[in-house]
Design brief:
Blueprint: H1 10-30, H2 39-58, H3 63-76, H4 78-96, H5 99-107, H6 116-131, H7 134-139, H8 141-151, H9 156-173, H10 178-187, H11 191-217, H12 228-237, H13 246-256, H14 261-279, H15 281-287, H16 295-307, H17 317-323, H18 332-350, H19 353-361, H20 368-386, H21 389-406, H22 411-423, H23 433-442, H24 446-449, H25 454-469
Helix pairs in contact: 1-2, 1-19, 2-18, 3-18, 4-10, 4-14, 4-16, 5-6, 6-8, 6-9, 6-11, 8-9, 9-11, 10-21, 10-22, 11-22, 11-25, 13-14, 15-16, 18-21, 20-21, 20-22, 20-25, 21-22, 22-25
Amino acid sequence: MEQNHKLPHPIVALVPLLVLVALIVLVVNLFPDDALAGASQIALMAASAVCVAIAMTMYKVKWDIIEKMITSTVGDASVSILILLLIGMMSATWMISGVVPTLIYYGVQIMFPMFFLPCACIISSIISVMTGTSWTTIATIGIALLGIGDALGIPAPYTAGAIISGAYFGDKLSPMSDTTVLASSVAGADLFTHIRYMMYTTVPSILISLLLYLVMGLWYDGTSIEVSQYLTGLQNGFNISLWTLLVPAFTGYLIYKRTPSLITLLLSALSACLCALVLQPEVLADIAGDTEVNAKSLFMGLMTTCYTKTSVDTGYEAINSLVATRGMAGMLDTIWLILCAMCFGSCMVATGMLKSITRILLKAIHNTVSLVCSTVTSGVLLNLVMGDQFLSIIMNASMFREEYMERGYRPELLSRSTEDSATVTSVLVPWTACGMTQSTVLGIPTLVYLPFCFFNIISPIMSCIVAALGFIPKPVPPVKEECSE
């Protein structure tokens, strides 16, 4: 959308951003556990109001221009919102169908004392890929792994670092992750293409991390501990069967065939529903509140699983929280945040304030490497000042999107650089929602586990190295204009 008004001065353009930062700091401190439940959204709307007020009073920007930009931006987000809802449905059905419990059941049995740290990282990666959330992985299987590590005599910060590294690796590569969907959608990249190009930076980063955890783990030895209670709990709640792995195999096939994201997620969720009907009928009946397995209870159980919270009684409270699901309703806070963030971003774009700020930031960019390094640095800095990874992802991609388009780079380069910085470093900042949450859940201060989160530290650096080596998505071919003499 063209701007016919004068661009605001960069200092003036920073005012709404500073207001947002101040409000987010207050929100994170006053609502540490519920920052995403509404307070952050109100902060975004308040910052949007400040932006509009300044633009309309000082620079005579017409409201129609701002409104049209908001309408256009929110309309573009409709597919992403549908993806998020399907992700909520898919992650819930994967859990209740026994897919994730089966993976956990067999995963915890492959651990050995000397190889515990790399195993903890790998298990966290698998669970995070399957569930699409690093927070749930850390708060559930992460707690169990932390206890196992303590029993083996491994320092808790080491274990915490391995768990967080694996959880964020899996979160980045999972098509069910809200941050992955958010980064790709804001940058304008296809979800699965975005994930494929992230392999260039995430795989080397996690391999280096695993090597470091292996070296650290070799310094410790011990005896294997009893995990029968944990395994018994999973067996009490679900029918553990390798047949459930047909669901992720089918999903992997759909991804390999490059099936559109919406279709892939829907078919994966439906296949998990079918798996639940065959292998977990008692679980579905219990969710429906019925003691008998019949058509009514199975239908109600499936519907409840897909759209709202569910719980399964395994006999152990820690495992109950691990296998609890939120369904589509669990994604509503994220969707609400995205809509409010897009409103703020639209106001910053329509008023010219974002362009005024980015002009200064982009003056130092001369080539591909400097562009990627600037994007990565910006993502880290936004985490430091904004306190929320979702806002950092949105702001970072929004600020650089036009520059990437003008230079002919594919949006996957922008989305990858944003994920390599804004997503993974959020847990390393003590005052962000991620940092405070994981510190509280694991009982270890952020700055204590930070040195051992190798994947999170290496990823931003690897993003710059990979760009310098030339492993970037192929540029968009320029459109040839026909000239007539």
